[in-house]
Amino acid sequence: MSMRTLNLLKIQKYVEKHIALFHKQRLDFIKENFNLDKLLRHKNPYLFKAKNIFTAQQLIKSMADAYLQSGEETRFGEFMEGLAIYVCDMVYGAEKLEKGVGMDFKFEKEGVIYIVECKAGWNWGNKSQISQIKINSEKAKRRWGKNGKEVIIVNGCCFGNRKNRANKAGYYKICGQDFWALISNDDEFYIKIIDPIGHKAKERNEEFEIAYASLQFKFTLEFVNRFCDNGGIIDWKKLLEFNSGRKNNKREQNYKN
Fold it and tell me: Which of 34, 106, 206, 219 could be a cystine partner for 115, CB 3.0 to 4.6 Å?
């Protein structure tokens, strides 16, 4: 299909709608799906001991910050990937691909078919995941390369300025400004989206921070009662028994000693 004009007003409305959803998910997560036991079971107590943390308040804040950050990065990555598909669809009529393909979307530009696996940042994936994208790339080329058109596989990364990797592994890794320019036909698009993303960020974050501070206070009181000595200092033995002790593993132990 022919290239269409990028409508920045529509993109702004899309961003504001979906970034609001991101903030709602953050708030809902700490209100509904966050509890002290889950926090203590998911974080490494040895790490925090090595950092010389000895009060409940320090420990709870450090653990909660680390736990929330990993979840936020995942949710925000999903937002960025959705935005990339929306932008490319507006300009080139991108087609979102089914999950089994292993790629996110495809579009045609100047007679070339581009098939994109979209990631939030450039530094993603372990060795196994990198190998999988190579396999998916070969499958995609065989599927869409039958009509004689050139097929280019792209690992598109929404931020970063790593040098674009050549097609040695069966695909191109294109990051940051170059990726947004590829799918939007606008070399400055990567800058134009920053203001809509930050729209009303202050108000939304204030609501989150109030709820988060209240939750940390609640967790700290509970932690002191369960895992601190009479002086308010962390009893690491109790904490490790809860986090790693065999008697607290609810699953049946099937291995042999």
Answer: 106
φ/ψ of residue 167, rounded to 5 = -80, 50
How many angstroms separate the CA atoms of 191 and 88, rounded? 16
Q: Residue 155 pairs with which residues in a beta bridge?
A: 117, 173
Q: Residue type at 228?
A: C
Which residues 6+ apart lie within 8 Å of 1 measured at CB? 92, 93, 108
How many Cα neighbours within 13 Å face the side chain of 85? 19
- Residue 169: how many other CB atoms lie within 10 Å: 15
Q: Which residues lie across from 107 on neighbouring strands? A: 114
CA distances from 128 to 12, 16, 71, 173 (A): 37, 36, 22, 17
Q: What's the pLDDT tens digit per position in 90-135?
A: 999 999 988 777 889 999 999 899 999 988 777 666 677 777 888 8
CB burial of 30-68 (b: ≥16 within 10 Å; e: otherwise) equals beeebebeebbeebebeebeeeebeebeebbbebbeebb
- pTM, rounded to two decimals: 0.78
DSSP label of 246: G
The pair of structure tokens assigned to 62 is: 């450090």
